């Protein structure tokens, strides 16, 4: 066995679930077939560091089928042990086991980096950053890395600004086929359904506060409203706040909104968004959850330091009695709820996100030696290709710009635009 996993005997169950997921990933599968035909990834060492469930495993297997030398890692709380076993059974070194400690998570990433990847496919940029701090010797021979999330792209841009970034990065998150669908639709749906399932209560008429109205927050608000909730949005960006108001939601500072929340969901992806003073404004019995995913996005450790006590726990729902005497329900210890306590984003959405990731791998390898150590955007043509493949799978058809339109679009002389 290569890698470090919990239980290799679970491989059959994992293999079945991967095979099921694969049927619903037509864009990713088609792009992997193109990679195989072009020979672009043949013999290339690729590290995949992402939530380890059947959709991610499908990507790892497709890359391996295209000829890449693939290895995988994942943090313990986002690992499906049966899927990890299936990958190892298929010959892919995998470093991931449910329940791993922080130290074990870190060792697993370092073990992945010791495969000397030429490309990293990352989610959260932890692996890319550890490569820079702990394994800088591998960077010189790398083609680059591709990063899937908003919160991962942010520190990579900081590294670029500070001159610390040493490899080209594709901001897969910023591709239109990623963030307009995964963040807005997939995460909106999966976060709201995960919270609803854990709370086991009707949302009709309940008061839901969504913190942050970016792409994820707008999707969470829309799905909560669709279940009948009264939605209030808290924002720090006036434009985003105004968008929330135009979408029909109440907009309030968090300290005011928290005071009437039945359910509060943070979607900012920024640590300490929901501070102890916000938690202490919540009514008795309110529930809090995270859809963004930063460590301590809800300041639970600070609440414990301030005197809060966990009084009970059932599955992923714990009850925290705050220092002010009120009790609130905390969903899965404030981890990214749709991933840590549910199945993650829907397959059709991840088909797009992973299609973007494979296109980014192709772009990095095609530009090897010419791409600068900076954060790059996936070319529009590649983004369009992912969308067109997925649209085809949806049974949709597309028009093309006519030559008359094209003439109009490319002319500038005043007479050409006179009505
Ligand atoms: N759970 C998932 O499956 C999943 C999927 C995609 C993205 N994400 C993560 O979700 C997070 C958000 O992603 P996004 O694409 O929506 O980002 P975004 O930048 O579009 O939106 C974040 C919003 O939060 C607002 N904000 C920041 N601080 C705030 C505060 N104190 N109070 C209120 N609002 C505040 C910002 O103004 C911004 O509008 C990121 O961390 C991203 O990585 C999670």
UniProtKB/TrEMBL annotation:
It is an enzyme of class 3 (hydrolase). Its EC number is 3.3.1.1. SMART domains: AdoHcyase, AdoHcyase_NAD. It comes from the Bacteria. GO terms for molecular function: hydrolase activity. The keyword Hydrolase applies. InterPro entries: Adenosylhomocyst_ase-like_sf, Adenosylhomocysteinase-like, Ado_hCys_hydrolase_NAD-bd, NAD(P)-bd_dom_sf. Residues 183-344 form the S-adenosyl-L-homocysteine hydrolase NAD binding domain. Its cofactor is NAD(+). Keywords: Hydrolase, NAD, One-carbon metabolism. Pfam families: AdoHcyase, AdoHcyase_NAD. Belongs to the adenosylhomocysteinase family. This is Adenosylhomocysteinase. It comes from Microbacterium galbinum.
